[in-house]
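Researcher: Let's run the pair from yesterday's discussion. Sequence first, then C-alpha cells, for each.
Model: Starting with the first of the pair.
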Amino acid sequence: MSVLLIEAFYGGSHKQLIDLLQENVEDCVTFSLPAKKWHWRARTASLYFMQAIPSSSTYRVLLTSSVLNLAELVALRPDLGKLKKILYFHENQLVYPVRKSQDRDFQYGYNQVLSCLVADVVVFNSSFNMESFLTSISTFMKLIPDHRPKDLEKLIRPKSQVLYFPIKFPDVRRFLPEHKHFYKSRMYGIDASTNPDSSGCLSDLQRKQPTENNTSNLTPGPNKIMSTTCPEEAFKSPETSQEMNRTQNPETAVLQHEEDKPPNFNPCDTRKMVERDDGGNQSRPLHIVWPHRWLEAVHCGCYPLCPKALVYPEIFSAEYLYSTPEQLFKKLQDFCRKPDIVRRHHVKVDTDQFSWAALCRKFRSLLAAEAGEDL
C-alpha cells in the first residue's frame, strides 16, 4: 500500500473523508481510533500509532487530520517522517469556539502548529479555516511567557492550500416540488455531460453501490438556519455528526466533537406533509430546521439563512446572510407570512463544486507521491 491514512478520531466527517478516500483511491491502508474521548486522542494518539502501524517499504504518502500530533509521530517513527506528509484541517484549535477564552487549552492549538511545521502539505477545508489559523498563530504564541518563537506563519503559509470537503450527493429530484425539477436536472442530466458520475472519478465498484448522503464539515458556526419543504427521506440526519453544544445564549451555539451517537431527527415528517404543489400554496406550513450539515441541506432544496461571519460569506451571497438576531427574526417572519418566497426560490449556490466528482482529481493528485521523489 502506498497511501497511509491515519485518523485519530474516526467519526463524523473525519470518518467520512477517510472512508471516501479508502473506497476511491487505489493502494490505501487505514489506521484509526474510535471517535471517543477527543481530548485524549489529541494528547496520546501518536504513541498508539507508533506501535500500531507496521513498518513497510511500500508507504509513499501519509495523510492525517489535525487531531493527531504529527510532530510526535514522526519523531517516534522516523521511517514515517520520510513520507510525503499531508495534514488535513477539518477545524482549527486556535479559533475554535469556546465559552470563555480561559477555557481554551493551549496544548491543542500548539500541537496543530507543530504538526504544520513538520508536514509537507497543509490542507484546510475552507479559506476561512486557513486564514483564521495562519493569522492567529502570532497572537496565540504570545501566550507563552517568554522566549516566544517568531515568524511561524511564514514557514507554514507557503505549504498551505484549500481543498473543500468532498461529498457524494444523492439524486434528490424525486423528493422536490415539480417546479424545481428542471433546476436540479442541470446537475443530474441523463446525458454524460451533466451526469455527476461521468467525471470518471468514481470507481466501478462505487458506481454499482447506492450513493450515501455523506456530510461535510466546513468550519462550523452559530445558528445555521434553513427553511425547507423537503420530505424526510431527502433530509435524514447523518448517522454520525458533531455534537451541538449550546450555551445559555442560543446565538452562541457551537459545534463540538461528539462522543455519542445523536438521536434520530426528522425535520420533515411525511405524515404531516400534504400533496406537493407548484410552491404557491400559502396554507401549507413552512418547515424550519437547524441542520448540522448545510451543504447537503441546500442540495436538498433548503433556503439557507446563515450568520454573516465565519465561513458563510465565503459560500453564500449577501441575500442569505444576517448580521443581527433582529435581521434573522425579520427574515423568518417574512418567510412564514409568505412561504412561497422560499418555495419558488432557487438557491444561488453551486453545490456541485463540493461534490466528490468535482474534487476527486485534486485529492488523487494530493495523494500522489511527487515524481522523482527520493523516498
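Model: Moving on to the second of the pair.
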Amino acid sequence: MAAGSLPDEDDPFEEQRERVENPMKRLFLVYGRPNISYLVVGILSSIGARLLDLLPPILLGFAIDAIFRQDKSFAAIWLVPDAWIPASQEGQLWLTVGIIGGAFAVGALFHWTRNWGFNAFAQNIQHEIRTDTYDAMQRLDMDFFADKQTGELLSILSNDVNRLERFLNDGINSLFRLSVMVLGIAGVLFYFNWQLALVALLPVPLIALFTYIFIRTIQPKYKEVRSTVGAVNSRLENNLGGISVIKASTTESYESERVDEVSMDYFDANWDAIDTRIKFFPGLRVLAGIGFVTTFLVGGLWVLSEPGDAPWIFTEPISVGEFVTFILLTQRFIWPMAQFGQIINMYQRARASSARVFGLMDERGRVEESLDAKELEVSEGAVEYDDVSFSYGEPAADTADAGATDGDAVDDSTPEQILDSVDFEVEGGETVALVGPTGAGKSTVLKLLLRLYDVDQGAIRIDGTDVRNVTLPSLRRQLAYVQQDTYLFYGSVEDNIRYGSFDAPREEVVEAAKAAEAHEFIQNLPDGYDTEVGERGVKLSGGQRQRIAIARAVLKDPKILVLDEATSDVDTETEMLIQRSLDDLTAERTTFAIAHRLSTIKDADQILVFEGGQIVERGTHEDLLSRDGLYAHLWAVQAGEIDELPDSFVERAAERRARTEVEIESEDDD
C-alpha cells in the first residue's frame, strides 16, 4: 500500500494530502522538466559507468581462456582491431591490462559526471520546492497558522523536502545504476551460456516476492514514524520557545517527562521499522547466497565434466574463463535485485512527502486578492467600519475563516460570533482608542483592518475603498502595526528597527529610535545598534522589545498607525515619554490604539468601548465619564476611586469565561 493512500488520523496535513493527485507526476513535470539537462547527464553517465564496470570481469574470463589456457584465440577479443593484437602472450596480457585500466579510468570519469548530474538535479529541485512551499505558506492567512504547530510546518519544510531530495538523488541514481547492471549482466550471462544463466536467475522470483512482502509490511510503520517525528518536533519547538516559563515554574522534570514520552513514541515506531528492515536484508543475503552457491555448484560440475558431457539436462559447453565470469557477475547481479526494494521504499516515502508538500503549497486561505485588485492610495486616511461581523471558525456565509487572537475563544465546530455589527467612522488624522474587557474583540477589529482575516459581513473601507478590493502589499504598506506580543528577529537592533524599511540609512534609524525613547538604552548595549538581540529578542526586556517595535513603526512612516497595547511592558515613566513622542507621530495620521491603561488614551478624539463583540459606548473621555457606564467604572477602578466593578459587569465577565470553558471542554471531547 502506498504511503499516503490511507487516511492518517495523526497527520495534521491529511486533508491537504488527500486533495493532491499524482504528486510524483507533478514533481517531475513542474520541477523536474526545467532541470532535465542535469538528469540526462546523470542517466547517460550512469549507463556508461555501469557498462564499463562490466568490462573487467568479462576480460578476466576471456584472458583465462585465451592467454593462460589458450582454449580460444585472442583475436576473438571484442572491439579491438586485428592490427592491434600482439602475437605474444605477454603482449596480449599487457593489452588486456591496458584495456581494463582504461575502463576503470573512463568509468571513474563517468561516475563523477553521474553523481554531478543527479546531485545537481536533486539539489536544484530541493531548493525550488522549499522556497516555493515557504512562499505559499507565508501567503496564508492567520487562521491556518492558528490550527498548525510550528514543528509540524518545519517538518514539511525540512524533513519532507529533504526526503524528496534523497529520492531524486539516491533513488533515481540507484534506479538507473541498478537497471543497467541487472540488464547488462543478464545480457552477458545469456550471451555466454543461456542455460547456466537460468540457474543464476533462479532466486529472482523469490527476491521479488520477498521484496513485495517487505514493502507491504514496512509502509504502515514508516507512516507511524513520520507522525511521531512531527510530534517530537512540535514538543521540542514549544519547550524551547517557552524555556523561560519552564524555568520560572520549576517544571523541568515535568517537561522532561513529556519530551521523554514523545521521544519514546518515536523510538518505538522507528525501532519497529528498523527491526523489520534489519530482518529483510539478511534474508535477501540468504537468497542471494542460495543463487550464488547453486551457480557455483552447477558451473563447477560443468567445468569438471568431460568435453561434450555436460551434467544433468545441460547441453551448452562452458569454459573455465566463462565460468569465472559467471561467478563474478552473479555476485554483482543478485544484490542489485535486492536493492530494488530500497528504491521502491524510497519512492513510496517520497510520494507521501510530495503529497504533503504540494498539499501545503496548494492550500488556499480565505484572505485572497481579487483578480482586479488595485493599488491602495491613501490621501486622507479616513477609515469606515460598515456593520462588520466576524466569527472564528467556519462562518455561515462563504467568507473568511480565521484563527484566535486577543483571548477570543475558538470552536471550529460551532463558531462563536466575535464581532457583531461593529459600525464606526474615523476621520483622517484622528486618534481612536479601543477599550474594554479582555476577549471583547478589540484586537480582532484591528487585524481585520490589515486583512489578517476577512470580515464575515459588512465592509471596511479606507478613503472609501473596500480593503478587499486592493492588493494586500499596498494595503499593508500604508499601515504600521505594533503588537502587544512584540516579535524581534534574530539579528542586530538596527536590523530589527529597519525591518520592512530595509533601505533606510542609519541616521533615520537613530531618529526613529529616539522617537520611541529607545536610543538611550540602545547606546548602553554592548555593541549599540549592532548588538545581537538573540532569538525572538530574548536578550532584551519586554519594554525594550516594545520600544524597538515602535521605532520600527516610526521608521515606516505609515499613513495609518495601529497600536495594540504597544506600551504594556514599559514602566510608567517610560510610557509617558513614549506617549509624548507618539503624540507627535500621530498628530497628522490616523491612529488606532488599544490600551488597558486608560490614562494613555484619554486624549483620543474618539473612544470606542467594546463588550461582547459590540460597541456599547463611544465618545470622548469626558463624555464617557459623564455617562457612568462601563468606561466610567473601568476608569474609576484604575484611578482607585472604587475597588471593583459592579456586579452586572462581573456577571457578564463570568458568563464569557464559562462559555469559553465549555468550548474548550468540547474541543477536548472531540
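Researcher: Give me one sentence on the second I can quote.
Model: The first helix runs from residue 14 to 18.
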